[in-house]
Amino acid sequence: MLVLRTVLLFVLAALAEIGGAWLVWQGIREHRGVMFVCGGLMSLCVYGFVATLQEEASFGRVLAAYGGVFVAGSLAWGVVADGYRPDRYDITGALVCLAGVGLIMFAPHR
After folding, report:
1. How far apart are CA 14 and CA 8, in angstroms?
2. Which of 4, 24, 27, 39 has its CA 20 to 30 A from that of 110?
3. Is 78 left (phi over 0), alpha (psi -120 to 50) or beta?
4. Where are the domains of the chain?
5. In terms of C-beta density within 10 A (0-12 exposed, 13-18 middle, 19 or more buried), how is residue 25 classed?
6. How far apart are CA 61 and CA 89, in angstroms?
7. Which helix (H) or strand (E) holds 48?
8. pLDDT tens-digit profile of 73-95?
9. Using CA of residue 109, residue 69, residue 8, residue 13, what is the dihedral sign?
10. In the structure, what pLDDT confidence band is assigned to residue 99 with cuts at 50, 70 and 90?
11. Integer Cα distance of 16 and 83 in angstroms
């Protein structure tokens, strides 16, 4: 159950952070307006809160592991939202990052 909770919280954090950053990008770089930027900023705040819900007590460990989720999630977001086509190096890199997430969060630490 702990693994499922950890994964779900990482997915929620990724949706909030990547979605927030995408909204800010759309608002500024794509000239979609201040409402996109404000929505993005609110979503980024939600990300900060969701990250605190992880069971792991170490801020550094949680954020380091989340970095791998962010890499893979960002590529997936690009595919869905922007039609991005990752190449084999993107996919391999994302898989390496996700393997790192597994090691950081679930390996038996001292």
Report:
1. 10
2. 4
3. alpha
4. 2-106
5. middle
6. 26
7. helix 34-51
8. 999 999 999 999 999 999 999 99
9. positive
10. very high
11. 20
User: To which residue do tokens 């550094």 refer?
Assistant: 60
Name the residue among 53, 52, 41 with its Cα closest to residue 17: 41
- Residue carrying the six token digits 């994964």: 7
The length of the chain is 110
CA distance 10 to 7: 5
User: Could you write out the three-class secondary structure of 3-45?
Assistant: HHHHHHHHHHHHHHHHHHHHHHHHHHCCCCCHHHHHHHHHHHH
In the structure encoding, which two tokens stand for residue 22, read together? Answer: 């995408």
- Predicted TM-score (pTM) above 0.70: yes
